[in-house]
Design brief:
10 helices, alpha/beta, 10-stranded mixed beta sheet, Rossmann fold, single chain, 283 residues
């Protein structure tokens, strides 16, 4: 892509959120990118406050957090030598960070990617939702969940995990991402019992011609002794990619979301590799 890519990086000033900053900066080193850093300000109002008291409190909080955000970005600019005009920053306001960010992206389709740091989640958080988890499963904008342990390194290999449903449209998107990064693409698919065996060499040749980009294909039997997420997690560790890419059905029912959480959402809190989740074609 020759046009500039717009990346949104939310920060809550935590160590975990700095991982999202580092990943966005690495992306900017490999592609023409504009990075927008945002912090979501949540203002809680005490019932005994008058309108005047609340507005005074709100003004103080806005000033304090804007100065904190400015200081953070100044430090980032100096450390990573960001060029003027390639980044911006501002505050957003709302009662919930994930809902505010979803709404912002909805009204700003020029945002191509969101990079969010994640520190992991305990079982209760996973069940009832975290900012990153909710954003992954509800945002129409591609989201990268970046583990807090992430350190800057070249994005050289993309691992696209697929069930092969709608792979034509999905692989086109993966190629669009990989091309400006000059990154290699590996396609991973777990075959199920009874599934037809396909010749990977033949598929690689066909897909290279179809998509105009070389890919390597790895079809391996699913391990029935492990959960699909655990199987995928182990395979990712063996591959050692720079970025894992999955497509997620974001229009599940509430019942499905609670009792059958998205594999990509669960994986985002477990693996040590950045995970990019894009919207999956509906059946």
């Amino acid at each position: 892509m020759t046009k500039k890519t717009n990346i949104l990086v939310p920060t809550d000033f935590s160590v975990a959120s700095r991982a999202g900053i580092r990943f966005a900066i690495q992306w900017s080193r490999q592609q023409n990118v504009h990075i927008t850093f945002v912090h979501v300000l949540t203002l809680l109002r005490l019932t005994k406050w008058s309108d005047k008291q609340f507005e005074a409190f709100a003004a103080t909080e806005r000033k304090r957090l804007q100065e904190k955000l400015d200081a953070l970005i100044t430090g980032v600019q100096r450390r990573y030598h960001l060029r003027p005009g390639t980044y911006s920053s501002f505050l957003l306001e709302g009662v919930s960070a994930d809902l505010v960010l979803i709404d912002y992206c909805w009204h700003h389709p020029e945002i191509h990617l969101v990079c969010m740091g994640t520190r992991g989640a305990n079982k209760i958080d996973k069940l009832f939702g975290t900012n990153t988890g909710h954003f992954i499963t509800h945002s129409d904008t591609p989201v990268t969940a970046v583990p807090a342990s992430y350190r800057i390194k070249k994005i050289s290999r993309l691992l696209y995990a697929t069930d092969l449903n709608h792979y034509q449209d999905e692989l086109k998107e993966v190629v669009t991402l990989a091309r400006p990064l000059h990154a290699k693409i590996s396609v991973l698919h777990f075959t199920q019992p009874g599934e037809m065996n396909l010749n990977t060499d033949t598929i690689q040749k066909i897909w290279k011609k179809e998509f105009g980009y070389p890919v390597t294909v790895d079809f391996r039997p699913a391990d029935i002794t492990r959960s699909p997420v655990a199987d995928l997690e182990k395979t990712i560790q063996a591959f050692g990619p720079s970025l894992v890419i999955m497509f997620s059905n974001r229009r599940r029912t509430l019942f499905q979301a609670i009792f059958y959480p998205s594999r990509s959402e669960r994986l985002a809190f477990r693996i040590k590799t950045p995970l990019l989740v894009l919207g999956k074609e509906q059946p």
